[in-house]
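pinging the channel bc i need a second pair of eyes. not urgent but kinda urgent?? the chain im working w is below, pasted from the shared doc
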Amino acid sequence: MPRFVKLATLEELPVGSAKEVEFEGRVYAIYNVEGVISAIDGICPHQGGPLAEGTVEGTTVTCPWHGWQFEIRTGKTPLGSKIKQAVYEVKVEGHDVLVAVP
Protein backbone atom coordinates (compact mmCIF):
# COMPACT_ATOMS: atom_id res chain seq x y z
CA MET A 1 0.00 0.00 0.00
CA PRO A 2 1.44 3.41 -0.92
CA ARG A 3 2.34 5.93 1.74
CA PHE A 4 2.56 9.70 1.40
CA VAL A 5 5.99 11.25 1.88
CA LYS A 6 7.16 14.85 1.56
CA LEU A 7 9.19 15.18 -1.63
CA ALA A 8 9.07 18.96 -2.11
CA THR A 9 7.61 22.23 -0.92
CA LEU A 10 5.46 24.71 -2.82
CA GLU A 11 8.35 27.19 -2.59
CA GLU A 12 10.50 24.73 -4.56
CA LEU A 13 7.79 24.34 -7.22
CA PRO A 14 6.59 27.71 -8.50
CA VAL A 15 3.95 27.63 -11.25
CA GLY A 16 5.48 26.39 -14.50
CA SER A 17 8.36 24.54 -12.87
CA ALA A 18 9.45 20.93 -12.43
CA LYS A 19 11.65 19.19 -9.90
CA GLU A 20 13.40 15.84 -9.94
CA VAL A 21 13.48 13.99 -6.63
CA GLU A 22 15.05 10.64 -5.83
CA PHE A 23 13.49 8.68 -2.97
CA GLU A 24 14.29 5.10 -2.00
CA GLY A 25 15.95 4.37 -5.35
CA ARG A 26 13.11 5.76 -7.47
CA VAL A 27 13.19 9.01 -9.46
CA TYR A 28 10.10 11.21 -9.45
CA ALA A 29 9.35 14.18 -11.71
CA ILE A 30 7.09 16.66 -9.91
CA TYR A 31 5.41 19.45 -11.88
CA ASN A 32 3.42 22.57 -11.10
CA VAL A 33 1.19 23.21 -14.11
CA GLU A 34 -1.16 26.16 -13.61
CA GLY A 35 -1.11 25.60 -9.85
CA VAL A 36 -1.86 21.86 -10.05
CA ILE A 37 0.91 19.64 -8.68
CA SER A 38 1.47 16.30 -10.45
CA ALA A 39 4.06 13.55 -10.10
CA ILE A 40 5.17 10.88 -12.57
CA ASP A 41 8.03 8.42 -12.88
CA GLY A 42 10.96 10.71 -13.66
CA ILE A 43 12.84 8.36 -15.98
CA CYS A 44 11.80 8.14 -19.63
CA PRO A 45 11.26 4.48 -20.59
CA HIS A 46 12.97 5.01 -23.96
CA GLN A 47 16.57 5.50 -22.84
CA GLY A 48 16.40 6.88 -19.32
CA GLY A 49 16.10 10.58 -20.04
CA PRO A 50 15.31 12.95 -17.13
CA LEU A 51 11.66 13.94 -17.61
CA ALA A 52 11.84 16.75 -15.03
CA GLU A 53 14.27 18.50 -17.38
CA GLY A 54 11.88 18.20 -20.32
CA THR A 55 9.84 20.95 -21.93
CA VAL A 56 6.26 21.22 -20.69
CA GLU A 57 3.50 22.49 -22.98
CA GLY A 58 0.04 22.41 -21.44
CA THR A 59 0.12 19.15 -19.50
CA THR A 60 2.51 17.32 -21.82
CA VAL A 61 6.19 16.86 -21.06
CA THR A 62 8.71 16.14 -23.82
CA CYS A 63 11.80 14.17 -22.86
CA PRO A 64 14.90 16.29 -23.48
CA TRP A 65 16.89 13.38 -24.88
CA HIS A 66 14.79 11.96 -27.74
CA GLY A 67 11.45 13.75 -27.72
CA TRP A 68 9.16 11.11 -26.25
CA GLN A 69 6.05 12.79 -24.82
CA PHE A 70 3.90 11.99 -21.80
CA GLU A 71 0.73 13.52 -20.42
CA ILE A 72 1.71 14.57 -16.89
CA ARG A 73 -1.64 13.82 -15.25
CA THR A 74 -2.33 10.42 -16.86
CA GLY A 75 1.08 9.08 -17.93
CA LYS A 76 -0.28 8.36 -21.42
CA THR A 77 1.76 8.93 -24.57
CA PRO A 78 0.83 9.39 -28.23
CA LEU A 79 3.21 6.50 -28.97
CA GLY A 80 0.51 3.93 -28.17
CA SER A 81 -1.37 2.32 -25.33
CA LYS A 82 1.36 -0.20 -24.46
CA ILE A 83 3.59 2.56 -23.09
CA LYS A 84 2.47 4.45 -20.00
CA GLN A 85 4.45 6.36 -17.42
CA ALA A 86 3.60 5.70 -13.76
CA VAL A 87 1.61 8.54 -12.16
CA TYR A 88 1.64 9.10 -8.40
CA GLU A 89 -1.08 10.65 -6.27
CA VAL A 90 -0.16 14.03 -4.79
CA LYS A 91 -1.47 15.88 -1.73
CA VAL A 92 -0.52 19.38 -0.62
CA GLU A 93 -0.56 19.96 3.13
CA GLY A 94 0.29 23.53 4.04
CA HIS A 95 3.43 24.16 1.97
CA ASP A 96 4.47 20.49 1.78
CA VAL A 97 4.07 18.44 -1.40
CA LEU A 98 3.35 14.83 -0.43
CA VAL A 99 3.59 12.04 -3.00
CA ALA A 100 2.14 8.54 -2.64
CA VAL A 101 5.19 6.31 -3.00
CA PRO A 102 5.02 2.54 -3.51
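so Residues 3-101 form a domain with the Rieske Iron-sulfur Protein fold (CATH 2.102.10.10). and The longest strand covers residues 26-33. — does that match what u expected or am i reading it wrong
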